[in-house]
Amino acid sequence: MRFIALGAAVVAAVAAYSAWWLSVAHSVPALILLQAERARAAGYEVETGAPIVEGYPYRMVVRLPHLVLAAPQAAGSPRYEGDQLTLVAQPWNLDHLIIRADGTERLSWQATGEASRTSLKIDAAKAFASLVVRDGALERLALDLTEPRLRTDAMTTDLGLKRLQVHARRLPKEGGAEGAGAELAFEAEAAALPPEWSGPLGPEMALARLALKLTGPLPGALDAAAAAAWRDAGGTLEVEQLAVKWGRMDATGDGTLALDAQMRPLGAFGLHVSGWEQGIAAAVAGGHVKPKAGDAARLALGLLGLANHDAEGRAGVPFTLQNGHVLVGPVPVATLDPLF
Fold first, then answer.
1. Looking at beta carbons, which pairs linking 262-266 to residues 24 or more positions away fall under 8 Å?
2. Which one has a higher pLDDT value, 242 or 33?
3. For residue 105, which of 135, 162, 64 has the smallest C-alpha distance?
4. Which one of 168, 171, 220, 255 counts the least CB within 10 Å of its CB?
């Protein structure tokens, strides 16, 4: 009798779970349509196609043949289009989504003052995203692209990478603060650059890594008013890690940025750089630094390099952004215009 009772309990539990899973699966398409309608009512553009739900018993798998997400009223009017998307979640935790894209993805936006939109096409051998949503707001985002190929309308050939990773998260609010900011990390490996990007540093960038921390209330738009409000609230952009290996140049460092009263970048960086001769040549060739300023930077870096090296032989270099000037040590090498 015990075994019969146990078997009956197991069958009942499986039946109850199956009924619950089917109930959740049945509600998912309706939930997607409801959220899409709410987004459209708020001024967004959303297209999902007809979702297919599967994955019983352990997962909730939603397949979308096509997805369009656009914010026409937001700064830059960003737009995303993707094909053959698969969304995976645990039935008991729909706030955490794993997304796989098996088709071409397209991003487009319109920069301030530009008449036409910029389009970016992405094709990758593997493309995954992880999203965590709390109370209707995006809390964490991670992107992982293997062997992606990226191209904009202005590029003659693809930008190819071995791997591209992006991580972002909102910082938790403390003490009832309106907003504590966000963190963003970016890493690109083994980049094969288009000819128009290579310059004196060469066509291959072994590594680009950037970790940022934005403190203060998150700006709601990318305009002068929002930037001024963020600055006046004490907002800063902390560059927690910067690393670039491009040709002979090898640079690492960190620093802090803010905005001055004229909306120009203000801050200081501590960098360690080797192969800086090529870096200066690239800045001069690209028109970012005038030739005379490049000569001054070479002299300053040469003198600083004689006195200070790290274990890898990189010269310690202080960079300062102040009063509309970029200084390498005490030597001004470039000017800064207001961002807005």
1. 262/324, 262/338, 263/224, 263/227, 263/228, 263/231, 263/338, 263/339, 263/340, 264/321, 264/324, 264/336, 264/337, 264/338, 264/339, 265/321, 265/336, 265/339, 266/321, 266/322
2. 242
3. 64
4. 220
Q: Could you say which DSSP state residue 309 is in?
A: B
Q: Using alpha carbons, select from 316, 183, 154 the residue that is nearest to residue 251.
A: 316
With a CB cutoff of 8 Å and minimum separation 6, the contacts of 42 are: none
324: alpha, beta or left? (left if phi > 0; alpha if psi -120 to 50): left
User: For residue 211, which phi and psi values (nearest 5 degrees)?
Assistant: -125, 120
CA–CA gap between residue 170 and residue 136 (Å, rounded) = 13
pLDDT single digits (tens) 76-98? 788 999 988 998 988 788 788 89
Whole-model pTM over 0.85: no
Identify the DSSP state of 222: S
DSSP, res 112: T
Angle between helices 291-307 and 276-285 (to 10 degrees): 170
